[in-house]
Amino acid sequence: MRQVFLICLSTFLLAACHASIPKDALQLSPESLADRQMQTRRFETNNNQTMLSAAGAVLQDLGFTLDESESALGILVGSKRRDATSGGQVAGAILIALLGGPPPPVDKEQLVRVSMVMREITPSSSVEPAKATDKPSGQSIVRVTFQRVIVDTANHVTRAEQIVDPEIYKEFFDKLSQSVFLEAHEI
Which is it for the CA torsion 163, 166, 167, 173, positive or negative? Predict the structure, then answer.
Protein backbone atom coordinates (compact mmCIF):
# COMPACT_ATOMS: atom_id res chain seq x y z
CA MET A 1 0.00 0.00 0.00
CA ARG A 2 2.84 2.35 0.85
CA GLN A 3 4.51 1.73 -2.54
CA VAL A 4 1.30 2.57 -4.38
CA PHE A 5 1.01 5.78 -2.37
CA LEU A 6 4.65 6.75 -3.18
CA ILE A 7 4.16 6.02 -6.88
CA CYS A 8 0.97 8.11 -6.99
CA LEU A 9 2.66 10.92 -5.07
CA SER A 10 5.72 10.95 -7.35
CA THR A 11 3.51 10.89 -10.46
CA PHE A 12 1.52 13.82 -9.12
CA LEU A 13 4.69 15.80 -8.30
CA LEU A 14 6.19 15.13 -11.73
CA ALA A 15 2.96 16.16 -13.44
CA ALA A 16 2.92 19.38 -11.42
CA CYS A 17 6.42 20.26 -12.72
CA HIS A 18 5.31 20.19 -16.35
CA ALA A 19 5.67 23.69 -17.78
CA SER A 20 3.39 24.75 -20.58
CA ILE A 21 4.61 26.57 -23.65
CA PRO A 22 3.58 30.23 -23.70
CA LYS A 23 1.00 31.02 -26.39
CA ASP A 24 3.22 33.66 -28.01
CA ALA A 25 6.39 31.51 -28.00
CA LEU A 26 6.34 31.05 -31.78
CA GLN A 27 5.16 34.57 -32.63
CA LEU A 28 7.64 36.82 -34.37
CA SER A 29 8.33 40.17 -32.79
CA PRO A 30 7.21 43.31 -34.66
CA GLU A 31 10.87 44.19 -35.27
CA SER A 32 11.67 40.86 -36.96
CA LEU A 33 10.18 41.88 -40.33
CA ALA A 34 12.13 45.15 -40.32
CA ASP A 35 15.32 43.29 -39.36
CA ARG A 36 14.80 40.74 -42.13
CA GLN A 37 14.26 43.50 -44.71
CA MET A 38 17.43 45.25 -43.55
CA GLN A 39 19.40 41.98 -43.86
CA THR A 40 18.09 40.91 -47.28
CA ARG A 41 18.69 42.11 -50.85
CA ARG A 42 17.73 40.85 -54.30
CA PHE A 43 20.40 40.37 -56.97
CA GLU A 44 20.07 39.77 -60.71
CA THR A 45 22.12 36.57 -60.66
CA ASN A 46 21.58 33.04 -59.52
CA ASN A 47 25.20 31.99 -59.89
CA ASN A 48 26.26 30.84 -56.42
CA GLN A 49 29.94 30.75 -57.35
CA THR A 50 29.98 34.36 -58.57
CA MET A 51 28.00 35.59 -55.58
CA LEU A 52 30.14 33.74 -53.02
CA SER A 53 33.34 34.88 -54.70
CA ALA A 54 32.17 38.51 -54.63
CA ALA A 55 30.93 38.22 -51.03
CA GLY A 56 34.16 36.56 -49.92
CA ALA A 57 36.18 39.42 -51.42
CA VAL A 58 33.98 42.00 -49.66
CA LEU A 59 34.25 40.24 -46.31
CA GLN A 60 38.03 39.96 -46.61
CA ASP A 61 38.20 43.67 -47.49
CA LEU A 62 36.22 44.33 -44.29
CA GLY A 63 38.77 42.35 -42.26
CA PHE A 64 36.90 39.06 -41.89
CA THR A 65 38.49 35.63 -42.13
CA LEU A 66 36.40 33.18 -44.13
CA ASP A 67 35.57 30.22 -41.87
CA GLU A 68 33.16 28.21 -44.03
CA SER A 69 31.95 28.28 -47.60
CA GLU A 70 29.57 25.93 -49.40
CA SER A 71 28.86 27.05 -52.94
CA ALA A 72 26.28 24.31 -53.63
CA LEU A 73 24.18 25.59 -50.73
CA GLY A 74 25.01 29.29 -51.16
CA ILE A 75 26.44 29.68 -47.65
CA LEU A 76 29.39 31.78 -46.46
CA VAL A 77 30.51 32.30 -42.85
CA GLY A 78 33.28 34.58 -41.62
CA SER A 79 34.60 36.05 -38.40
CA LYS A 80 37.01 38.60 -36.99
CA ARG A 81 38.30 39.43 -33.51
CA ARG A 82 38.41 43.00 -32.26
CA ASP A 83 39.28 44.79 -29.04
CA ALA A 84 36.26 45.45 -26.83
CA THR A 85 37.90 47.45 -24.06
CA SER A 86 35.66 50.23 -22.75
CA GLY A 87 37.21 53.27 -21.11
CA GLY A 88 34.26 53.58 -18.70
CA GLN A 89 34.64 49.99 -17.52
CA VAL A 90 38.39 50.38 -17.02
CA ALA A 91 37.89 53.63 -15.07
CA GLY A 92 35.25 51.93 -12.89
CA ALA A 93 37.56 48.98 -12.22
CA ILE A 94 40.39 51.34 -11.23
CA LEU A 95 38.06 53.28 -8.93
CA ILE A 96 36.91 50.08 -7.21
CA ALA A 97 40.53 48.94 -6.83
CA LEU A 98 41.47 52.32 -5.28
CA LEU A 99 38.61 51.97 -2.79
CA GLY A 100 40.09 48.63 -1.70
CA GLY A 101 37.85 46.19 -3.51
CA PRO A 102 38.93 43.57 -6.00
CA PRO A 103 38.79 44.95 -9.54
CA PRO A 104 35.87 43.49 -11.49
CA PRO A 105 36.49 41.91 -14.89
CA VAL A 106 36.15 44.28 -17.85
CA ASP A 107 35.30 43.57 -21.49
CA LYS A 108 38.40 42.44 -23.34
CA GLU A 109 37.63 41.09 -26.79
CA GLN A 110 34.76 40.66 -29.20
CA LEU A 111 34.24 38.06 -31.89
CA VAL A 112 32.21 39.42 -34.78
CA ARG A 113 30.62 36.72 -36.97
CA VAL A 114 28.89 37.12 -40.30
CA SER A 115 26.67 34.57 -42.03
CA MET A 116 25.47 34.93 -45.60
CA VAL A 117 22.92 32.73 -47.35
CA MET A 118 22.02 33.00 -51.02
CA ARG A 119 18.78 31.50 -52.33
CA GLU A 120 17.70 31.33 -55.96
CA ILE A 121 14.22 32.77 -56.50
CA THR A 122 13.94 32.73 -60.28
CA PRO A 123 15.16 29.63 -62.08
CA SER A 124 17.42 29.96 -65.04
CA SER A 125 15.56 30.33 -68.33
CA SER A 126 17.78 27.87 -70.17
CA VAL A 127 16.89 24.19 -70.15
CA GLU A 128 20.32 23.12 -71.34
CA PRO A 129 23.29 23.03 -68.95
CA ALA A 130 24.98 26.41 -68.68
CA LYS A 131 28.29 26.90 -70.42
CA ALA A 132 31.16 28.74 -68.80
CA THR A 133 30.68 31.63 -71.27
CA ASP A 134 26.93 31.97 -70.67
CA LYS A 135 25.75 34.91 -68.63
CA PRO A 136 23.79 33.76 -65.57
CA SER A 137 20.11 34.53 -65.68
CA GLY A 138 17.59 34.56 -62.89
CA GLN A 139 17.49 36.25 -59.53
CA SER A 140 18.53 35.42 -56.03
CA ILE A 141 17.94 36.63 -52.52
CA VAL A 142 20.93 37.22 -50.27
CA ARG A 143 20.52 37.48 -46.52
CA VAL A 144 23.38 38.41 -44.27
CA THR A 145 23.49 38.63 -40.48
CA PHE A 146 26.16 40.03 -38.20
CA GLN A 147 26.53 38.89 -34.58
CA ARG A 148 29.02 39.62 -31.85
CA VAL A 149 30.13 37.89 -28.68
CA ILE A 150 32.00 39.93 -26.06
CA VAL A 151 34.34 38.23 -23.59
CA ASP A 152 35.73 39.84 -20.43
CA THR A 153 39.14 39.53 -18.74
CA ALA A 154 37.85 36.52 -16.73
CA ASN A 155 37.02 34.78 -20.04
CA HIS A 156 33.26 34.94 -19.42
CA VAL A 157 30.82 35.91 -22.15
CA THR A 158 29.35 39.25 -21.10
CA ARG A 159 27.19 39.82 -24.16
CA ALA A 160 26.05 37.84 -27.20
CA GLU A 161 23.88 39.78 -29.59
CA GLN A 162 22.86 40.33 -33.17
CA ILE A 163 24.12 43.56 -34.67
CA VAL A 164 21.16 45.57 -35.95
CA ASP A 165 22.83 48.79 -37.10
CA PRO A 166 21.29 49.55 -40.54
CA GLU A 167 24.43 51.39 -41.64
CA ILE A 168 26.53 48.21 -41.37
CA TYR A 169 24.12 46.28 -43.59
CA LYS A 170 23.85 49.15 -46.09
CA GLU A 171 27.64 49.37 -46.35
CA PHE A 172 27.96 45.61 -46.84
CA PHE A 173 25.31 45.43 -49.55
CA ASP A 174 26.68 48.50 -51.37
CA LYS A 175 30.11 46.88 -51.52
CA LEU A 176 28.61 43.51 -52.47
CA SER A 177 26.65 45.09 -55.35
CA GLN A 178 29.83 46.67 -56.69
CA SER A 179 31.76 43.43 -56.29
CA VAL A 180 29.05 41.35 -58.03
CA PHE A 181 29.07 43.83 -60.91
CA LEU A 182 32.84 43.55 -61.24
CA GLU A 183 32.74 39.73 -61.01
CA ALA A 184 29.96 39.46 -63.60
CA HIS A 185 31.84 41.68 -66.05
CA GLU A 186 35.20 40.09 -65.23
CA ILE A 187 36.76 43.45 -64.39
Answer: positive
Report the chain's mean pLDDT, rounded to a whole number: 80
Q: How far apart are CA 131 and CA 136, in angstroms?
A: 10
Q: Is the dihedral of CA 58, 62, 66, 69 positive or negative?
A: negative
Evaluate if pTM is beyond 0.90.
no
| Of 15, 20, 68, 45, residue with least CA distance to 176 | 45
Instruction: Give the integer Cα–Cα distance in Å for 172 and 182.
Output: 15
Q: Give yes or no for a contact between 113 and 146, defined as CB atoms under 8 angstroms apart.
A: yes
Strand partners of residue 76: 69, 116
Cα–Cα distance between 179 and 61 in angstroms, integer?
11
In the chain, DSSP finds a helix count (H) and a strand count (E) of: 5, 6
* Angle subtended by helix axes 166-184 and 48-61, to nearest 10: 130
Residue 20: CA atoms inside 13 Å, Cβ hemisphere, count? 4
**What's residue 130's pLDDT?**
47
Give CA–CA dist 35/166, Å, rounded: 9
> Over the stretch 64-112, which tens digit does the pLDDT of each residue have?
999 998 888 889 999 999 887 777 766 776 777 777 777 777 778 889 9
Out of 5-19, 28-42, 125-139, 172-186, least confident range: 125-139
